[in-house]
Amino acid sequence: MSISKVYRAFSELDAFSDEECERFVRAARAQAGFRLTASAIGAGVGMAVALIAALVGGAIAWRWMGLPRLDRADRALFVVIAMGGIFPCVVALAGFGARDQTLIGAIRRRLGNATCTACRFSLLGLPVTDGAVRCPECGTVLSLAALGLKEEDLLSRTEREDRAEVVTTTAVQETPRSDLARMLR
């Protein structure tokens, strides 16, 4: 279960349920594969090197400016605070940030792949017929196989409409007549 709904940052996915969006994000995460892990590790290592360089540079600058030396207890406290508290937090944040940016890029790529080749209109949610989809903007019929897509990649409307119809029918059957009349007003 995700902590945030990163898919809500993409207006193309607003018409879809959380469940459908989470499935879309899982597919994007699987497509990104090792890049998510590698970006997090790379950013973490890069930040670690930068922090160590900053600490060493700060120590050199301290000496160069002729500031008074810290006694052993003060240096030990500084190292404990810097290395034990701040350092791991900054490295972890850098790793998580890089991972999230890589995931956002993977979602953008998946959304970009699900567009009409003629007019770039989004094909998400459109019904698929015989392995093809018709762009409502320009009328071009696109083969999913030629685009390298599957019906699940488009979050096709046919299965969503079937579920919505069942929910609507059930709600109408279970609602008393007075409540139904009030809802229809």
**Helical content class:** 55-70%
Q: Unreliable segments (pLDDT under 50, ≥5 consecutive)?
A: 166-177
Class by SSE composition? mainly alpha
On the 0 to 100 scale, the average pLDDT is: 77
Query: How many separate structural domains?
Result: 2
Estimate what percentage of residues fall within beta strands: under 5%
Terminal CA distance reads 39 Å
Order of helices and strands: HHHEEHHH
Number of helices: 6
User: Looking at the chains present, what oligomeric state does this protein adopt?
Assistant: single chain
Radius of gyration: 27 Å
* DSSP strand tally: 2
**Main pleated-sheet profile:** 2 strands, antiparallel
Apparent shape: rod-shaped
Question: What does the model show?
Answer:
Helix content is 64%, strand content 3%. With 185 residues, it is mostly helical. The chain has two domains: 6-113, no CATH class; 116-185, no CATH class. Strands 1-2 form a two-stranded antiparallel ribbon.
Give the secondary structure arrangement, pairings included.
Elements: H1 18-32, H2 34-64, H3 72-113, E1 132-134, E2 141-143, H4 144-147, H5 157-174, H6 177-184
Antiparallel strand pairs: 1-2
What descriptive keywords fit this protein?
2 domains, mainly alpha, two-stranded antiparallel sheet, rod-shaped, 185 residues
Structure described in brief:
With 185 residues, this protein is mainly α. It folds into two domains: 6-113, no CATH class; 116-185, no CATH class. The protein has six helices and two strands.
